[in-house]
Design brief:
about 250 residues; alpha/beta; Rossmann fold; 6-stranded mixed β-sheet
Length: about 250
């Protein structure tokens, strides 16, 4: 059984005229249903995906800077005041899980090193700093997270903010396969903010667009990453001509 059923929102009255309350995707938003093992949050930079994900991490009891509920280290994160407007509706409440933030991963890797002997065992037995950037991401995904999934029947909630940030195309495909394994388990629930058309192609995943106000469910082929990538690959010369004919002066 998936742990989290939905997120209900109770907005302050009057709503503050400042971030994050002014994000257009949150206007009129009453609930976010989570009926699929994997839910993707899709939208342009600054559309509110990371804000919602970090606030959800805090509401679920994880470190909003990244890690599990036990992770204790400092890194910068956005304003998570939104978590106070969230009410989590659980099928089966769990504190078993992980919040991955590409932005603070370097700090998290240093925190793991500081745990001392045995601290790196769940990550393949060596420091995450010993891998390339992309390899360290996959080491966490394959060892730390899959290891938790194998240890027992307890459900888990995994939150990812741009997991593709350091992954090559083959790395994204490897992570896509891992997402499919988690989804098939029916015990691992994933909520991820991503720009990757490769990850978004996961069969059975739910997609929500933050480019709408309020955010709306969309299909894979309606998503901007899919449409823009397809348009570029079908005719890169035409696509590049249109971009380079822009009247705006270069920076």
């Amino acid at each position: 059984m998936l742990p989290l059923r939905s997120i209900q929102f109770t907005w302050p009255t009057p709503r503050p005229r400042q971030f994050p309350w002014t994000v257009p995707a949150f206007h009129g938003l009453e609930s976010l249903d989570l009926h699929s093992p994997v839910t993707f949050l899709v939208g342009d930079n600054g559309s509110g995906k990371s804000t919602l994900l970090e606030s959800l991490a805090e509401a679920a009891g994880f470190n909003p800077e990244g890690g599990s509920q036990h992770a204790n280290y400092a890194a910068s994160h956005t304003n998570t005041a939104l978590h106070g407007a969230m009410r989590l509706i659980w099928n089966r409440k769990t504190r078993n899980g992980f919040f991955f933030r590409a932005e603070s991963f370097f700090s998290y890797a240093g925190y793991v090193d500081d745990l001392g002997p045995g601290g790196t065992d769940p990550y393949g037995g060596q420091s995450l700093h010993a891998w390339s950037h992309g390899e360290s991401f996959l080491a966490l995904f394959k060892h730390r997270l899959r290891g938790k999934e194998r240890r027992g029947p307890e459900s888990a909630l995994y939150l990812f903010d741009e997991p593709e940030a350091a992954l090559s195309t083959t790395g994204q495909l490897a992570f896509l396969r891992l997402l499919k394994e988690w989804a098939d388990s029916r015990r691992i629930q994933v909520i991820a903010a991503t720009h990757s058309p490769i990850l978004l192609a996961l069969p059975g995943a739910s997609l929500y667009s933050f480019d709408s106000s309020p955010l709306q469910p969309i299909t894979y082929r309606e998503s901007a990453p899919y449409q823009l990538t397809r348009a570029f690959l079908e005719s890169p010369d035409r696509f590049l001509r249109e971009i380079f004919q822009d009247d705006e002066p270069p920076l």
